[in-house]
Amino acid sequence: MSIGSSGRIVIEIDPDLKRGLYSNLTAKGLTLKEWFVSQAEGFIAHAGQMPLPIDDSTDENKSISNKE
Questions:
Q1: Residue-wise DSSP of 25-61
Q2: Closest listed residue to residue 36, CA positions, set 58, 4, 5, 8
Q3: How high is the pLDDT of residue 52?
Q4: Helix, strand or coil for residue 11?
Q5: Fewest beta carbons less than 10 Å away: which of 20, 32, 52, 62?
Q6: How far apart are CA 40 and CA 17, in angstroms?
């Protein structure tokens, strides 16, 4: 897939997915562009962050939850 410099993104998706996406975006008062830009900005902002390790099986987590 080539990457041009126009700022335009073209993708092909399943028509049912497209209808569902537009239906839900319309219900929330959003355009596809607004939603996509928001998602893309969030993805880029968090792309370099390491996920937090969450392990509920550790002794420390068990003792904390038992105190509640």
A1: HHHTT--HHHHHHHHHHHHHHHTTPPPPP--TTSHHH
A2: 8
A3: 79
A4: coil
A5: 52
A6: 19
